[in-house]
């Protein structure tokens, strides 16, 4: 089943890039006015946790600056603690 598209095309492009890196993107099921969904590291999807650090972030539905929010999501994935730990081994 495909997920719904994010209403902002810049954020949607970032979400597709994250999915390409193996991150999971889930649409919120609650009634939050601001949170559109959540992105999680592929290691979090397998319930693996290192030192209590989770690589995840909320995706806002209508951020003040959509371009900045999209960049923030991509930076988070690039700086993922788990990804850094794996590359150092």
Can you give a write-up of this model?
The chain has 89 residues and is α+β, with helices and mostly antiparallel strands. Helices cover 42% and strands 17% of the residues. It is built from 4 helices and 3 strands. The protein has helices at 9-20, 42-45, 66-78, 81-88; strands spanning 24-27, 35-40, 56-60. Helix 1 packs parallel to helix 3. The radius of gyration is 13 Å and the shape is globular. It starts with 8 loop residues before the first helix and ends with a helix.
Q: For the residues shown, what is the average pLDDT?
A: 81
Number of domains: 1
Helix content: 40-55%
Q: Got a strand count?
A: 3
State the order of secondary-structure elements, H for helix, E for strand: HEEHEHH
Largest sheet: 3 strands, antiparallel
Rg calculated over all Cα atoms: 13 Å
Report how far the terminal alpha carbons are from each other: 35 Å
Tell the overall outline: globular
Give the strand line-up of the largest sheet. 1-2-3
Structural class: alpha+beta
Topology of this protein?
Layout lengths: L8 H12 L3 E4 L7 E6 L1 H4 L10 E5 L5 H13 L2 H8 L1
Antiparallel strand pairs: 1-2, 2-3
Helix pairs in contact: 1-3
Spell out the key features of this protein.
89 residues, alpha+beta, three-stranded antiparallel sheet, 4 helices, globular
């Amino acid at each position: 089943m495909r997920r719904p598209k994010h209403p902002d095309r810049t954020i949607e492009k970032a979400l597709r890039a994250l999915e390409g890196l193996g991150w999971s993107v889930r649409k919120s099921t609650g009634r939050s006015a601001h949170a559109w969904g959540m992105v999680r590291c592929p290691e979090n999807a397998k319930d693996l946790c290192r030192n209590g650090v989770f690589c995840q972030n909320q995706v806002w539905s209508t951020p003040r600056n959509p371009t900045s929010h999209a960049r923030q999501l991509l930076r988070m994935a690039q700086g993922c603690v788990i990804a850094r730990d794996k590359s150092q081994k």
